[in-house]
Please model this.
Amino acid sequence: MSGGALKIKLSKNMRPYIGRVVRNGRVQRAFAAQIGRPVGACMRSSATRPVTKRAKECSKQFAGSHLNI
Model:
């Protein structure tokens, strides 16, 4: 079973509750490998400021892509 954790979340009525979140599941690992690490490497290598502009440039190539699980 995938590793999980508990986190305080907000319901649709804005009431806090403790809910489970998946941190090391199949989808999370696929996102990290296919999108997260390449965008992170681009962010580290680029010297463009501000950070939001750099993030948009680095993530533009992955816009609309689907994960291969």
User: Anything to note?
Assistant: DSSP finds two helices and two strands in the chain. Strands lie at 4-10, 16-22. Residues 4-62 form one domain. The first strand starts at residue 4 and ends at 10.
